[in-house]
Every structure is written in structure tokens, then in C-alpha cells.
Amino acid sequence: MQSEDDYNVLLTRLRKSLPETITTHKRFEIPEPEVLYEGKTTVLRNFGDIVDAINRESSHLMAFLLKEVGTAGSQEGRRAQFKGRVPVSQLGDRINNYVDLYVLCSECHRPDTKLVKEGRTLVLECEACGAHRPVRVHKSTITSKKLSALEEGKEYDVMIQDIGKKGDGIAKIDKYTIFVPGVAKGATAKICIVKIQGSIAFAKQVFE
Ligand SMILES: [Zn+2]
Predict the structure, then answer these.
(1) CA 133 – ligand 1 centroid, Å
(2) How far is the CA of 200 from the centre of ligand 1 (A)?
(3) What is the 62 CA–ligand 1 centroid distance (Å)?
(4) Domains of the chain
(5) For residue range 91-137, what is the model confidence (pLDDT) as tens digits?
(6) CA of 28 to the centre of ligand 1 (A)
(7) Measured between alpha carbons, how far is 199 from 124 in angstroms, rounded to an integer?
């Protein structure tokens, strides 16, 4: 009897010492962003659920999203708020970017990773396969490409987020505020950039 008890105790202890990934094999799913608009504020209702699913610091994800979307905002409990009307698709894309960058292992594509600092470098360590890669922020974010890509004479698809005092539609692409005459609030439009002045751009609607 004594030896069987010892065996059970040992077995329990052994199971507890196994990493979660071996015993559970949970499927990795990021919740779709649930967004609602309160006036000119965008509320990401399930921010907390998304943070739980990806197992990262909420402040880290929040800082990333604010930078990528190019707006101000804050965490309010398990919700997150952003200034302005941020399209759901944009939030979803940016969350996916974050996951590619800071969560998924580039070798085995599993999310069982952790972020560690090695000197000044942020390194993603995979607990499933042992892979180890530095996080390369600059190359993989879409924002940096888009920022340098806003050019006079080029066409972009935008959503008209607001109407300015003079009646022009206002769209945003990252840091740029773009004025488009003759469009309605909430509409999506193909526009051609006419002129860029700093972070302000003037565009005209393009009809196909
Ligand atoms: Zn891996």
C-alpha cells in the first residue's frame, strides 16, 4: 500500500511539472475584435479577451495599437478606447500584426512563446520547439511601409471618418489627415492624393 501511495504522489508531481503545452494542446484562437462607436470614440469591447488569448502584457499590446493606428487612447478595465472612428478591419489587421511579431514562433508557428530581453534586444523564445528569434519591429509593420507610401498622385482606398468645418470629408491613413471634397461621412472612397503638406493631405475622389 505504502509504495502505491508513493507512486501516485510521484505521478501527480510529475504531471504538474510537465509544461502546459504537452498536456493540453489548446487550439490557438484570437477573438475577433468586437468594436462599438460611442460618438467619436472607438471602443474595443473584448480587448481583455484578446490579451488573455495571446498571453501578453495588455499595456504592450495597447502601446503597439496606439502607435500603429496613430491615435490616442486608453485601457478601461477589459475594454480599450481609441480616439476617432477606427475601422474594425484596421484594428483586426493590427492585432494580427502584433501576433505575428510578438507571439507566434516563426519556426513552428505555435503561440507558446515568451518575450525576453537580451541586452537591448527583445527576443521571442518558443517553449514548444526551442526556437529563438529577435523581434524585428521595423521591417514587419505595415505602418512604416504605408507612411513612406503616401504620395502625391497615388490612389488609396479610405473610409471617410468625419466631415470638416468646410464640408470636406476627412480620412486618416496613419499620421496623415486627408481632406476629400464631396464625400459623405461613413462612406468608403477611392481617392487620389493631390497635395501633401506635412501630415495634412488633400485628395480628390476617383470614380472607376
Ligand atoms: Zn517554435
Answers:
(1) 10
(2) 43
(3) 25
(4) 2-106 (3.30.30.170), 150-205 (2.40.50.140)
(5) 999 999 999 999 999 889 899 999 998 888 889 999 999 999 988 76
(6) 14
(7) 34
